[in-house]
Design brief:
The protein has 155 residues and is mainly α. The protein has helices spanning 6-20, 25-92, 125-131, 140-147. The radius of gyration is 42 Å and the shape is flat. The chain starts with 5 loop residues before the first helix and ends in an 8-residue tail after the last helix. This is Sec-independent protein translocase protein TatB.
Length: 155
């Protein structure tokens, strides 16, 4: 790689001062700095993307190993469960209907008010409007102000 020391940087600065001139040098230095910053950000983004893809590959391999282990465990559990059911049926003398001998089967519990938020007796708005039922609450002061006679009108 290029070894840039303080002496080389000073030499580059002196040549740039002579070639570009003292008036344009700050603007050129700012432009070069922004371009270098953009280049560094681009290189960092590429590095991060490569790291992410490597991690993704590792995660995919790990996922495959976990899934294969889970399949193995599932198959071993199924074989042991079928063996257990056969031995249970032989010892109890019952068919594998899911019921145990000597136990009662109770129905599943259901809550009596399953839809308690549902308003079943709601009065429709058109009926309230026809029969004159108030649907909007109004404070006492607002009601007095509403029905106060207007000045200049004789009731």
């Amino acid at each position: 790689m290029i070894d840039l020391g303080i002496s080389k940087m000073a030499l580059i600065g002196a040549v740039a001062l002579i070639v570009i001139g003292p008036e344009k040098l700050p603007r050129v230095a700012r432009t070069v700095g922004t371009l270098l910053g953009k280049a560094q950000r681009y290189v960092n983004d590429v590095k991060q993307e490569v790291n992410r893809s490597m991690e993704l590959d590792e995660l995919k391999k790990m996922k495959e190993t976990v899934e294969s282990a889970a399949r193995d465990v599932e198959s071993s559990i199924q074989t042991s469960a079928s063996d257990f059911e056969k031995s249970w049926a032989e010892t109890t003398g019952t068919a594998s209907s899911g019921e145990l001998p000597g136990f009662e089967v109770f129905p599943e519990y259901k809550h009596p008010k399953k839809k308690w938020r549902l308003k079943t007796g709601a009065t429709p708005q058109w009926y309230k409007a026809r029969s004159g039922v108030r649907t909007r609450a109004q404070s006492g002061a607002a009601r007095v102000a509403r029905f106060r006679p207007k000045p200049g009108h004789n009731a």
